[in-house]
Amino acid sequence: MADMSSLIAVVADIGGTNTRVAISRGRVVDTGSIRRYRNADHDGIASVLRMYLAETGAAPQAASVAMAGPVRDSRGTLTNLDWTIDREVVRSASKAGHVAVLNDLQAQGHALAHLGAGATEVLLPGLPASLQAAKLVVGVGTGMNVAPVFRLNGQTLVPPSEAGHITLPLQSQDELRLKDFIAAQHGQPGVEDILSGRGFERVYAWLCAERGGTPKDAGAIMDTLDSDLLAGEAVSIFTRMLGRVAGNLALIMLPFGGIYLCGGVTRHFAPHLLRAGFAEAFRDKGRFAEFMGQFPVHVVTDDFAALTGCAAHLVETLEQGA
After folding, report:
1. CA angle 91, 25, 50 (to 5 degrees)
2. How many domains does the chain have?
3. Which of 95, 116, 277, 310 counts the most CB atoms within 10 A of its CB?
4. pTM here?
5. Is residue 83 predicted with pLDDT exceeding 80?
6. How far apart are CA 178 and CA 205, in angstroms?
């Protein structure tokens, strides 16, 4: 097995709004090298990578990008941005010898074993599990998605998914009215249409339509939690839906190694999750309520975890000779 601890790579995390780019050595990302680029200022990832490498003078041996959209055979189009990315695009822009293209939640999954101290916070303690136990990453930001994480024969396996577009698990007449409100403006809603930044705004807009009020953006909603009753209710609706969806996925995947909540929206909500009913919604599974207590739930506080995941995936793939 080759030693890739000194491998120099360019790694990128491509979101719907911004792209973060950095240089890594082995599995370690040089945090001082991280730069952020507004996607609106570029016509694709090739433009971003070329600008970054010109600005830094780096000459990477490998490149890995994580993108917020479905990836198949190392090719994909971002869900919320008209960029198509594949290995050849990345290879041409980076001049790197080895290239990987991942979904962004896959990159988060590859990062879990390599996050530093203080990169996660415990939300629900759960029970201890073996090192081989499955894990699950749940990401909420511009969009929403999940990725299961498995360890098998020394390799990390992170299958892709597009779980943000599954049907909403609705349980009340109020939630059905919320669904109809969203559907009237945006078509049949999926989980992402509530569990995302714009989804949170839609929840608040629905409450305004029902009770009177003026819709506002997510930041303004969070800023008025202490004075706006609708803002507090919107947080509770969002939180309960997140707990319910995470609990459903836990029963499907059985991630005894832990559930890891990540993404910018998750981090903004983290201080409010327990107060707003996450634990109750997560465990609300009838006779399986006690069973749900086995799953630890963590919040990933490292905003650059996907970059670490890109680096870790490159190293593991090359060390295995794939």
Report:
1. 35
2. 2
3. 310
4. 0.94
5. yes
6. 10
Structure-block tokens of residue 245:
């969806």
CB 95 within 8 A of CB 302: no
Residues in the chain: 322
Q: What is the pLDDT of residue 16?
A: 82
Contact 25, 10 (CB under 8 A): no
pLDDT tens for 246-284 read 999 999 999 999 999 999 999 999 999 999 999 999 999
**Is residue 138 domain-resident?**
no
Q: Measure the CA–CA gap between 235 and 296, rounded to whole angstroms.
A: 22
Pair 170, 294 in one domain? yes
Tokens of 80: 């919320």
DSSP of 2-60 = ---TT-EEEEEEE-SSEEEEEEEETTEE-GGG-EEEEGGG-SSHHHHHHHHHHHH----
Domain that holds residue 308: 8-117+302-319
